[in-house]
Structure formats: C-alpha cells, structure tokens
Amino acid sequence: MDLNLLKTFDAVMKSKSVNAAAEALNVTAPAVSHALNRLREHYQDTLFIRQGRGIIPTSFALELHSEIQGPLNLLINGSKSHLDFEAQNSQRTFRISSHKDIDLLLIPNLVKYREKHAPNITFDADIEHLNEQDRQDALRNRRVDVILATVPLTDHGYINQILFEQELVVTVNKDHPRIKDTLTMEDFMHESHLMWKTQRLNTNTLDSLVIEHSLPKRKIAYTTGSTTTALLLASETDWLCVTSKWHATKVAESFGLNIFPVPFKTNKVPIYMTWHQTQKNDIGHQWLRTAITNAIPSAE
C-alpha cells in the first residue's frame, strides 16, 4: 500500500471535500480523486457518498480511518514531530479521548490557546471511551495522545497528572412543588433522580465519591450520558440532578434552576490527564500537555 494513498484518504476524511483535501496536500483535485479510486479498488468499498454539495464517508471508511489515524500520524510525523516541533508552524493533529462534560470545561479555552500559539494545529477531541480498558488500549496503541477522565490509569507505563477537581451540587427546578429554600437528606432520597450513564470506578459517579457511608438506593427517573441534557431535563421536570458546580452555575439562571449543596459529605470529582510514558519526551506532546493545563477553567 502506497503511504500517500492513506495520507490522501486521511485528508479527505478530515475535510469531507476532495478540493479542500487537494489544497491541504498541495496537489490537484484529480490527483486526490485518482488516489481515492485506487483505494476503492483495493478495499472494494465506495468509501465516500455524495450528499448535497459534499461527501460523507461510508461506515467502512469511518472504521478504516479509526484504525489508521494513529499509526499514520506516527509514520508521517515520527521523529520530526518528536524533535523538531515548532508550535507556530506545526500542522500536527492531536487526538484527545475525553467526555462531552469535560469537553465543555476545557475545549473552548484550549481552542483559544491554540489560535494564539499554534494556529495550524488540529485537535481531534471527539474520541470517547466509556470504560477503562478501552482507554488503556487506545493509549497503548497510540490511537490517542492523551486521555481526560475522572480516574487515573494505574497500570505500568502510564503517567497521570491531576488537572483540577470539581465540587458536586444538586440542581432543582425553581418551580419544584416540594423543594424551595433548602434541600435535606430526606428530600434528596424522596425525590426521583437523573443519573449519569458514564461510570466511575465501576459504579455511578456519585456513589464513587461518597465519604464515610454508602448511599441508599435512589429512585432513578432517567439516565443520560450528558450533564447538559440532565440539567435541561431537571429544569422541565421535578427530577433532581447531581452535577458539578461549574456546569450547574453556567446554566442555572437561563434554565431556571436552584443550586443546593449535596446533603452529605462527598469528595470532589477529579479530572486527570493521562498519557503513555513513550510520549513523555515528544516535544509536540509536551506542548499539548502545556496547552491543556493552560485551558483549565478558574476554580468555582
């Protein structure tokens, strides 16, 4: 397989356009089309389908891109990206495995940092893993550069840095028929709850952070993988939503929510940045870690 074919495929996947890929690669559009035709013949798949004025990848193309992106970036950038990285001129792509709730905290500031210090760098930050084994495999196989998660990876070979911690609070609809000015433990256990789908330490996030005692079983009304979805649902129902203080404060006024302390002792939610030790001396990777650290929101 000609490596240039995969470089072309990668460029088309990222731009969703033959012309844009040609411009990025400094080749002609017919050359990009020719490379795609060779790949179609090799893989016996159409790879891209026309939709309106653009193109969309087939399911096979999505799977193929997921498999080749890490190794391709390593082959293309290899020693150069490790030793000769210059942020202002680099066109490197960094792959971040995170969670949509952590993305809301970090990505806006991270993008602002990039625009100022490394305008041609790309962040691929939509790689989500819901369990710890998948996260480890992604780092080990270099499919991602860093993981942002609420637990560290303790196996040999991984480096963990705690970025910040978030306090938990309870949000309640301002028009709640029973909860007005205070929230007691009795209130908390009596009402129905919105639950996070993503687990922490093999249990739900709140239970993993309770101090001194286990939490009695709650009434679960709805489970979602998005804090924003949970907060909006809380504003439209009588359901309680336990979330981070940062997320709650951002939307409480516009969503019509009251914020209460959790009525029992809990630890804060830690957010870790994790990478594989083989990347610790990569100058570009060092820049990425600095950029993420600089994107940490101010403490609430």
Describe what you observe in this structure.
This protein folds into 3 domains: 1-84, Winged helix-like DNA-binding domain superfamily/Winged helix DNA-binding domain (Arc Repressor Mutant, subunit A, Orthogonal Bundle); 85-157 and 275-300, Periplasmic binding protein-like II (D-Maltodextrin-Binding Protein, domain 2, 3-Layer(aba) Sandwich), CATH 3.40.190.10; 168-267, D-Maltodextrin-Binding Protein, domain 2, CATH 3.40.190.10. It contains 11 helices and 12 strands. α1 packs across α4 and α9 (227-236) packs parallel to α10 (245-255). 44% of the residues lie in helices and 23% in strands. α8 (205-209) links the parallel β8 (192-196) and β9 (219-224).
* CATH class membership of the largest domain: Alpha Beta
Query: What is the distance, rounded to the nearest whole angstrom, between the alpha carbons of the first and last residues?
Result: 52 Å
Structural domain count? 3
In what range is the share of β-strand residues?
A: 15-25%
Spatial strand order of the main sheet:
4-3-5-12-6
Class from helix and strand fractions: alpha/beta
Low-confidence stretches: none
**Helix proportion of residues, in percent?**
40-55%
One letter per element, helices H and strands E, the order comes to: HHHEEHEHEHEEEHEHEHEHEEH
Major sheet summary line: 5 strands, mixed
A few lines on this structure:
The chain is an alpha/beta fold and 300 residues long. The chain has three domains: 84 residues, Arc Repressor Mutant, subunit A, CATH 1.10.10; 99 residues, Periplasmic binding protein-like II (D-Maltodextrin-Binding Protein, domain 2); 100 residues, D-Maltodextrin-Binding Protein, domain 2 (3-Layer(aba) Sandwich), CATH 3.40.190. The chain has eleven helices and twelve strands.
